[in-house]
Amino acid sequence: MKPILDVKGLTRIHGTECPSCLDMTGPEHNTNVCPACGSVVAAANVSFSLQPGEILGIMGESGSGKSTVVKTLYFDQAPSRGSAIFRDDDQSHELFNLNGAEQRWLRNHRFGMVYQNPNLGLNFGISAGGNIAERLLMNDLNHYGDIRRRASELLTRTDVMVSRMDESPKQFSGGMQQRVQIAKALATRPPLLYLDEVTTGLDLSVQARILDLILEIQHELGTAMIVVTHDLGVIRLLASRTLVMKYGRVIESGLTDQILEDPQQAYTQQLVASTL
Ligand SMILES: Nc1ncnc2c1ncn2[C@@H]1O[C@H](COP(=O)(O)OP(=O)(O)OP(=O)(O)O)[C@@H](O)[C@H]1O
């Protein structure tokens, strides 16, 4: 089976960029800030592939570049360079060569994103059902009754009480807001979902329910996912393969079980040891 996503050499540098940026940053220099020009190397030469239906984890401490990877793939940020091929049915899209309209189409129809901060993924000015309806309307579902039925189905699927669908998600708990974000992201049945620290800051029991929901969705819908987290427990539960990032670089990658049982890099060994 061909990967649904092939990322090669993804690099994102904030600042003017100079010839030293890549040589003088990274784990061996203990910084992602270029000492010559002050640019921030958020991600450098990140490469990986993702199979249809697979969950790939991206792990690393704060500032290591995890979010940068998914933000560029979801078109929240432009990369400085690199390529990303998204295979959808029989079509291949080179994500970083698309024009704005093509990017918006993929974002609205074929990708889903769940952010750590529900403010970024939800419109608090409208109801929970309205948030889902927005996405359904983009997918040419425009009959009021059909939209309401589908929104109810999605909220039921994600364990949000349908009786609250006309309330603003602002009034919901953090866990409920995340579940509405997931319902919204799933509205278009996207083959690829990005999850950026979706359980960070939630109570452990709430986290566990959301992680279970994510696994159920993967099993039922066969959705491929990239899960960004600093939490090894999340990686252990969800991801079959994992990338470990530090100072914008991928320092270790492979099967999650192998990485957790026999980490090769000192940094990963420390991360694993700290959670034992
Ligand atoms: N707009 C920006 N301008 C300058 N630097 C930025 C900008 N956005 C991100 N960065 C820097 O890029 C680096 C990578 O950020 P990124 O958000 O990808 O890290 P992360 O691993 O996801 O961390 P966190 O979990 O804290 O979000 C960080 O050093 C961050 O400060």
From TrEMBL:
Q: Name one Pfam family in it.
A: ABC_tran
Can you give the residue ranges of the ABC transporter domain?
A: 28-272
Q: Which UniProt keywords apply?
A: ATP-binding, Nucleotide-binding
Q: Which domain of life is it from?
A: Bacteria
Q: Which PROSITE patterns match?
A: ABC_TRANSPORTER_1 (PS00211), ABC_TRANSPORTER_2 (PS50893)
InterPro entries listed in its UniProt record: AAA+_ATPase, ABC_transporter-like_ATP-bd, ABC_transporter-like_CS, P-loop_NTPase, PhnK
Gene Ontology biological process: organic phosphonate catabolic process
Q: What is this protein called?
A: Phosphonate transport system ATP-binding protein
